[in-house]
Amino acid sequence: MLNVIFSRMEAQSASDSKIKEETSDQDVHEKDSRALSMSDSVACEFVPGDDQVIVVEKVDNCSASQEGLGPEYSHDKINLSEQHSDSLPKQIAESILNEIVDQVVNDTDISKSLPESPAPNVFTTEDNSSPPFLPRVPSQDSLETAESSAEPVQAKFSHVLQKDAFLVFRSLCKLSMKPLPEGHPDPKSHELRSKILSLQLLLSILQNAGPVFRSNEMFITAIKQYLCVALSKNGVSSVAEVFELSLAIFLALLQNFKTHLKMQIEVFFKEIFLNILETPSSSFEHKWMVIQALTRICADAQCVVDIYVNYDCDLTAANIFERLVNDLSKIAQGRQALELGATVNQEKCMRIKGLECFVSILKCKVEWSKDLYVNPNQQTSLGQERQKPHLDDLDSGKGTMTSYGSTNSLSSTNSSHGGSSVALTSLPDNPEQFEVLKQQKEIKEQGIDLFNRKPRRGIAYLQEHGLLGKAPWDIADLFHSDDRLDKTQIGDFLGENEKLNREVMYAYVDQMDFSGKDFVSALRIFLEGFRLPGEAQKIDRLMEKFAARYCETNLNNGLFASADTAYVLAYSIIMLTTDLHSPQVKSKMTKEQYIRMNRGINDSKDLPEDYLSQIYDEIAGNEIKMKATSNKPSGRQGLSSEKKRRLLYNMEMEQMARTAKCLMESVSHAQAPFTSAKHLEHVRPMFKMAWTPFLAAFSVGLQDCDDPEIAAFCLDGIRCAIRIACIFHMRLERDAYVQALARFTLLTANSPITEMKTKNIDTIKTLITVAHTDGNYLGKSWLEILRCISQLELAQLIGTGVKPRFLSSGQAANNDGVGLVLDPSEITRGGVPLDMKKMAILQESMGETSSQSVVVAVDRIFTGSTRLDGDAVVDFVRALCHVSLEELAHSSHPRMFSLQKIVEISYYNMGRIRLQWSRIWEVLGEHFNKVGCSPSEDVAFFAVDSLRQLSMKFIEKGEFVNFRFQKDFLRPFEHIMKKNRSPTIRDMVVRCVAQMVNSQAANIRSGWKNIFSVFHLAAADHDEGIVELAFQTTGKIISHIYEEYFVALIDSFQDSVKCLSEFACNAGFPDTSMEAIRLIRHCAKYVADQPQMFKDHNIEDQSVPEEDRVWVRGWFPILFELSCVISRCKLDVRTRALTVMFEIVKTHGEMFKAHWWQDLFQIIFRIFDSAKLPELQLESQEKQAEKSEWMTTTCNHALYGIVDVFTQYYEILGPLLLDNLYSQLHWCVQQDNEQLARSGTNCLENLVISNGMKFDDQTWDRTCCCMLEIFKETLPYMLLTWKPNRNDNQIIIAETSGKGHSPRHLPQHEQKDAIVKADAESKEEKLFSSLKIKCIVQLELIQTIDNIVFYPSTSRKEDMEYLAAAQADIGHATDSNQLSESQQHEEQGMYPYLKSPQLLKMVECLQESHRFAKAFNTNHEQRNLLWKAGFRGNVKPNLLTQETQSMACSLRILFRMYLDDSRQDAWPQVQNRLIGICREALDYYLSLSTENHRESWTSLLLLFLTRIHKMDDERFRAHAAVYYPCLCEMICLEIKPELRAVLRRFFLRIGPAFNITPVISK
Fold first, then answer.
1. Which is it for strands 54-58 and 819-821: parallel, antiparallel or unpaired?
2. Kind and range of the H or E run holding 871
3. Which phi and psi angles does 1103 have, rounded to 5°?
4. Residues 6+ apart with CB under 8 A from 427
5. Which pLDDT value is given to residue 1108?
6. DSSP notation for 1348-1392
7. Where is the composition biased (Low complexity) (predicted)?
């Protein structure tokens, strides 16, 4: 019959809709009239409760039977007992149906009669006027007083069928609420069966509800006001069947009506079902049914997400999802509150169900967020519903998740759809907004918790976070609106006498509306929100404000004379309540006593006795209490018997029912917006909030229980949790779950390997599956997975019966903390030996790890790395390298499992794009660097060989121009060669690189840099084989490969030259050094022949101008490396390098630009850097010898080479570098090295002679200044001032030397004195050596000036001519041929290019040198001191040569200037200077006392007299007049015949010149 009623209603609604569609194009008036003819409009209002009535106003007088309802609705046809009168169930059904029909008919009759005699609060309208409204009145069980401000409910039905269905539905709801008899009900009793049947019918209606029932406002309202209230009573029934039906109805409501029942669903969860789970006294049967219902709820993704979004993210709602998860976590861990005497099996079943709920929730989340998941293996999802609770296949394609809309889950896909006519305000599904709300809610909950402990702090906290206003009104509103605030704390806060507290209390009371309420009802409303404080003063303030507010809102009361009356009466009512209902008061107050107590309180008058009597009766029958709130169980309680448990349970259920019913009725008219979640992002905050309870449940399940079903659920849950954490990139959560999974494999844990069980094997398989399906998201979690796989390889060896040498023990207590030796007798980490039986069992359990499926699955992790995305594969490789290092860290037994896998995945991923591969190789290259330097040669050899194979494979692919990836790829060879000192490994590296060069030269591009770097490191080796192989390969590259592939090698040209330089500097192989220098010279040919190529290829440094690239990348490296060879190598090699360097410069210098020459000479001058280093006082003799050799050979050679280059390219070098060259020559002359000093002066002479004709005046000035500075700085002034250090040490040394004793045999103090003396002598020796060199430099400089001015050997030849002429004793002038020859030699010098002031400066410098030598030669005492000190051995020192040569050079210059017609302007100055010098010289000669000294002046006097003799008569007279007395004195001296002959010619000319004698013709 019910099916007929509701199906006809739906059919009629569909028919109406169809007719309306057909007539939609007609006139509005016609459409309205036709609609009225097809259906009756019925308006009704209803009032909930047992005495509710329906007021119906019909549009026409048609009855139900006239509308075609048929005989099904007649009483005659409803008699079901005629056919089976003997069937008790049918009789019960008959009576129930009759009761339903009777009630429907009675309701209809009452509704017809109501307009004639309306109830006081019922208002009806006639003739389609405004529809009737009825205010809501609470049911008889409710203690609440209905608010007069509640809006009336408007009821409208479009057809009488809807009205009938409504009446039937309401009657069933009322029937299901009828109370059962006290005690345990009889299962066959009429009351119980009628209740069960009515619930079954209601369930059928809800499950088969059509769109009209689901969307019509009246039916939704009926569900709220009748059905939900009925469920709040039946949902705590102790009868299992009633409870089960209530759960089923709740599930149906949740499935189809949750968008309309947001607040009702919250009550069901919060007050009934979750309380039952948490209550320790509830029966197992009730808990089991609840958790079964939760299983269905948790299997619906939409429902789970909707619960979180609408409750946990609602500031005013309870955290249903969070509480559900926490309860399920306790159940899944076996910590739930079970009833007394529950069996182990029951506990296990509950635990399994809890885990099933957890897994369902996680699967829902996975399903919800599946669009974000990318499976690297192109699989669908993660966890299918399996027939067996364990992994059947590790293949991700078979172990993935499907949709969860199974028969065991709610299908809420239509719950938010359909044409609902109920106007609900729905919030938009904005994940960010909900996340903000959730955060605010957490802050608010924290503030409320703080308030319940410290009210003021809680209020300040909420205000600080912007969740509570500063005004007292806002605080008072919070006290009214939030039931979570502690009522006692609210009362204490409101009763305080502080300003803020009083203002809040005033606002709190002012927000209450007591209008129309009787005094007791108003007092109930006032006191239900807080608990009165214990202090009388606080109560007094509260009652005073209450009385004022009551009188303010009830001005027309007429009963109270003033607010004082209300204040006293309120106080007396509170006292009466305490007296009548407190168990501590034994003598209760009587009504008469109460009336007598209140006499005269109404302005000295009495209140009516009837009024006070009514108050007494009401308080006696109904205590004033606070608003009903939920009472959560306080935890597991100790119950000593089943009887006590049942008693307690019944009490708790009654309290639950009362609380739920009150809350349900209070929200029956409330409209709360419900959001149907759609966004995927909701899963993130859900999982972030719940991941720890999930992990705790799964970890405990795997740790404590060996049941395969529990283990399967735990592993499924962990898989799902990892998937969610991966999808939303929640690193902390992901790492925690993966670490937990890895820990339960026992592969890396501290537990002995012998404890490996089936669940651990399944965990291993699950871990492999996670790696296979979620690899793109694992990040750093790869490390835990790959550690387990590394240890799995050892476990597989055990399973196959092989005896492994060791097995990693994680943190086991072994010395190195890496591994533990593993033999059959010691494979336990505790060191307990195993017998053969246990060993067999272990091998059998471990054998499963070696199954084909596991082996293939592990292999697929590595082969599948090709399908990982760019970031994931880098994380994978990094983790694998880390594990490999851990394996290799074992000091005695390193493993190479992961290293082999690294090589494999490198091959697999070789085809990736360069951008990804470069990131991969950044990690792999660093790993090969470390492994290649392993102390174990086997490991390092394997690494190098693997690197060779990978490199060959990669080089085969080739490389485009200007890319640098080969360089990065081959860099590990360079690092290993640099860091690994093992000859075997170094030889292996060189051979690998040589093989690459020999086989892949055509494909190598940027890798040449690394190749030359490896050979550069090999070049410094001491192993002949390594050096030989490296040099042979390098020679092949330079000689042959350069010819064919020079373009590809041009970027590494500098590296090749540097490599050859290193070969040249290896002192152990001189032949190789010479050949390397030859190859460097060969490289210069490539630069000279192909300079344009260097300009076109310069990617590395774009800052170098194009015209300079050939210098920077070609010539400069060659010359620089040759200078390095010169600086580092032994004499023969550096001499060869120096020769080659200057050959290259001289040969190709015409290609060099001006600024190139500057760079070049910086390189060349580096040759002298070694000699420029200051000598240390304690420098060894060997070092001094090396330095001396360096100056004598290399520096000397370099100086001549520099001058040659300068001469060849003077036009370019002169303006740029002449000053630098002079500075260098100046430095050379200053050195304490005779050969270098001589070379410096000689090079200066050659430079000036070769290029003097190109000098300008400024250059000559600089040149003269340079020579003058050298003169001044090399004068040995110390010769004139040196004094010996005289002390007793000389005597000591002499005595010990005479006795044949060395200083070390002396006493200690004498030894110190001897050492001091030795140091002094060493310093003196150095000083003497320096002075000697300065003397030599002075002579060299004098000769240099002479050679520069007059050309080399000109002066010597002139002296020889003068001597020959004198020897011939010819009385007249020298033969003209000889004179012309001398004149020709004179013209070849630099004299014509020098200005007179420059020549005079030279003369002055020469005279200064002459005067110094003369002073020394005449200081006989100083000469004797130096002689005794051993300055020149046994020869008495003198400076005769310097004395005479400086004077001779000066005279030649002056005489040449004196006879030069081009210098007539300087003749007077020259004449004066000449006369003065000659007069001084003659005087000095006459003063000489020794024959040897006078003989040394012979050639000088010959020069002087011969030159004077050649002057014309005028000049002769001027000079002869000055010199005549001195020359006369010379006659008296013993002089040589040649000098006498010349002197004779002088005197013979005096006569004619002064007209004393006639001129003698020739």
1. unpaired
2. helix 870-888
3. -75, -15
4. 433, 673, 675
5. 84
6. HHH-TTHHHHHHHHHHHHHHTT-SSPPPHHHHHHHHHHHHTSSGG
7. 402-421
Residue 1174 burial (CB count, 10 A):
6
For residue 1287, the one-letter residue type is N
CA dist list (Å): 250 to 228, 292, 416:
9, 13, 16
DSSP assignment of 916-982 equals HHHHHHHHHHHHHHHHHT-S-HHHHHHHHHHHHHHHHHHHHT---TT--HHHHHHHHHHHHHHH---
The answer to whether 1470 and 1463 have CB atoms below 8 angstroms apart is yes
Q: Shortest CA distance to 715 belongs to which of 765, 757, 749? A: 765
Phi first, then psi: give them for residue 1349, nearest 5 degrees: -75, -40
Indicate the Cα dihedral angle 180, 185, 189, 195, nearest 10°: 40
Q: For the chain, give percent helix, strand, coil, nearest 5.
A: 70, 0, 30
Tally the residues of the chain: 1562
- Strand-pair partners of 1542: none
Each residue's pLDDT tens digit, 111-131:
443 333 333 332 233 333 333
Kindly write down the DSSP assignment for every residue of 476-520, as one continuous string: HHHHHH-TTS-HHHHHHHHH--SHHHHHHHHHHHHT---TT--HH
Neighbours of 25 (CB within 10 A): 7
CA distance 1018 to 1039: 19
Phi, psi of 123 (to 5 degrees): -125, 130
Handedness of CA 252, 253, 259, 262 (dihedral sign): negative
Look at residue 9 in the predicted model and tell me its pLDDT: 62
> Which residue in this structure is represented by tokens 């704390």?
489
d(CA 193, CA 180): 10
Helix, strand or coil, per DSSP, at residue 746: coil
Q: Could you give the maximum distance between any two Cα atoms of the chain, in Å? A: 198
Q: Helices 1042-1049 and 1070-1089 sit at what angle, rounded to 10 degrees? A: 70
**Containing H/E element for 1128?**
helix 1116-1128
- Strand 42-46 relative to strand 819-821, pairing: unpaired
Rg for the chain, CA atoms, rounded: 60
Distance between CA 1075 and CA 1036 in Å, rounded?
A: 12
Counting as low any pLDDT under 70, the low residues of the chain are: 1-157, 183, 336-341, 377-427, 626-646, 648-650, 652, 656, 660, 664, 668-669, 749-754, 798-850, 961-962, 1097-1102, 1170-1183, 1286-1321, 1369-1388, 1559-1562
DSSP assignment, residue 273? Answer: I
Pull the structure tokens for residue 1261. 């000035």
Determine the pLDDT at residue 1315.
Answer: 58
Q: What is the spatial distance between Cα 1453 and Cα 1395, in angstroms, rounded to a whole number? A: 12
Q: Which single residue is written with the structure tokens 């994931």?
A: 872
Q: 1262 near 1218, Cβ under 8 Å?
A: yes
- Cα 1550 from Cα 1542, distance rounded (Å): 13
**Secondary structure of residue 512 in the 3-state scheme:** coil
pLDDT number for residue 802:
55
Which tokens belong to 557? 């009361």
CA angle 354, 358, 362 (to 5 degrees): 170
Q: Give the pLDDT confidence score for residue 55 in this predicted structure.
A: 32
Residue with tokens 């270098």: 1236
Tokens of 1158: 């500057």
Q: How many helices (H) and strands (E) does the chain have?
A: 69, 5
Angle at 682 between CA 676 and CA 683, to 5 degrees: 125
Q: How far apart are CA 492 and CA 490, in angstroms?
A: 6
Contact 834, 828 (CB under 8 A): yes
Return the C-alpha torsion angle 356, 361, 362, 367, nearest 10: 120
E strand or H helix at 55: strand 54-58
- C-beta separation of 1288 from 1310 below 8 A: no
Is residue 195 within 8 Å of residue 233, measured between CB atoms?
no
Per DSSP (E only), the strands in 445-508 are: none
Characterize the bridge pairing of strands 42-46 and 54-58: antiparallel
